[in-house]
Amino acid sequence: MKKLEVIDQILQKRNIELPYSFQRYVINDLIELANLSEKEEEDLLINTLIDLFIELSNGSTCLLLEKNCLFLIKYFDNVYHNIIGDKKPLIIREVEGKFFFYTYKDYLTELNLESILKERLAKKENLDNDLDNIDENIKKVLSFNTTFITGGAGTGKTSLAIRICDFFSNISKNKVEIKLSAPTGKGANVLKEKINEIEHLKGKNINIEIFTIHKLLGYSYTYDKFKYNINYKLKADLVIVDEASMIDLDLFYNLLSGISVDSKLVIVGDKNQLPPVEKGNVFGDIIENEVLANRVIKLTKQHRMEENILIVVSEIFGNEEKILEENKINNIKLNDLKELNNLKENMVYFIETKETKEIFEIIELIVEFYKEKINISKILSITNYGILGIESINNFIYENFCNIIKDIPIIIIENDYENELFN
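Given the sequence above, the corresponding structure tokens read:
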């Protein structure tokens, strides 16, 4: 039987599909190269490669190998090396007794990122200022050349970043160069708006510039390269990067390698917010790393969200099923929702239904209930298209409630710096 047929049989038996059809041929070529004599080992290799490609498509950079797959090490270390050379297509890395399966590119990027991070962490700070009477969080930022700030929405991450800028402007005798950045234009613009709210910063001996990360590092779309890189560093007194949970493995490496080790770097984010579009959960891994614990500032006090919603949100991250069992969320029926007087604005309600008609009834009731606040209210959906996608819901609301809608929001899909519109 041909190897492709074997691969298809295994996929069919597992009732899964590969993220990309060409990966069947990649697996086929790797199996041919391995030339395994035992069918059991061949099937294990096929299954492991399938698992790797699925993990990569889900945002991981590697696959943790099960013990029964460790026989693969000799093939990737010996057989492929003899045929291909040093640049193997796939590679296995051992970390603290565990074995991880990588593509060669992700393996190299991860090693290089670790090296750059170690270089930054090795640099000692010479403190000329008395740190006894200042905020503990700002003291930590001054004590290290690289720090990380994490916390949920509304815990004051951006506010702390602005206070750090203010403090730097107070302690420096020379003009302070500060760069603020975020992965998205929208995120960078939020930083700009926050800075503009601080009136007393405008008269100080301080120069604050705000960029997306790509713009900060001088990315060229023509050459697909960054101006600031491992050989030519960006220099500033302070660099603050927000929305770090969205930074993927490659961009995180380019960020750290492009900023001078002499520049103080503060990386801000929330691991439970939007993950990177591409591979890698670098920020989440960093803040959970015990070696870096003394450089991480964890903010927990909530300044924005209602307490009852905050309790539900925090517990959902821990155990969603337990919450529903313990009725931490108000589990109600559609008929209950029709009794609008019994609803409270800041409560969380869960209505289980599989009927499309009922869902649109729910939307209609909610819009009616919030009609006085329709222009500041939002309905979230996990898809853009389809009967329950964003487009369908928006059309339904506009057709039925156009008389009370004052403004129609638009989505900016591309940054426009001239008109200050950001995605």
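The CA atoms of residues 331 and 350 lie 5 Å apart. Try to locate this feature in the token string yourself.
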